Description:
- By secondary structure, the protein is an alpha+beta fold.
- It has three helices and 15 strands.
- The protein has two domains: 17-227, Sandwich (Immunoglobulin-like); 228-270.
Amino acid sequence: MKKKKSFFLLVLLFFISIFIGCLGNPNPDDVIIPDGQLNNYEINLSAGNLTNSTTYYLYTDKKNKTTQAVTTIVNTSTLNVSIRKDMSAHAKSKEEYGIEDLVVIGKISYNNNIDSNFSILSNTSYNTSYYETSIIKVICIEFAQPTTGFVAYSFSGEYGQFDQLLKRNETITVVLPPGHSTGNIILGTTKPKKPDKTFIDGNNRTCLLWNDLYPDRISILVRYYKSFLPAILSITVIVLGTCLLIVSLYYSNEIRKLRKKQELIESEIK
């Protein structure tokens, strides 16, 4: 009886330790994220009627494992950016907080009134803090006053797969590298499987768009590949199928010949 109680106590302590590890540090530490250059990001400063959204631009060079994110904020006081630890593992040093090259530009929203002219934006006052759990790194960006504008940053990822946590209800757009596709059941698909919209942008890149996934879904997954791979896969299947058919016909013919010889031998014996 005592052994059973000890066992259940150990199991309880184990789950408590996991739970505490997942919670991480409840008190974020103030940190400084390295600033980036505005001209390194694709931000449409002439856009009107901004809505909450984030566009992820996936990298094209395996050596430069970087994803760029451009988030639109509307009358926002706090923005939380969550990065999976397995994605930030490619960071150059352990001191980095999962993202870098941070750019924040916008306008203060007075009394919830938003100026529709965003062609002229300026650097916005903000503070950044950081905490982590056993699986994610969280960067909290707090604005001095409710702000409307853009937040851009870069982070590392794995080539061929984009896996991102969702923290707010917004429009999500994933821009694949030029010459890449998704949707093949063998080579790679998306979760959710069907985007609300798929289109080709001016740079001939495939763009996948989802509206208001959160909180029904807390993550998005896109597996992508070179656009020519499905054709190669189809050709390979056709070639292998043709070879298999030829081999099958050959052996069927040989078996038929052997049976005829056997019948002739049996008839001569009789």
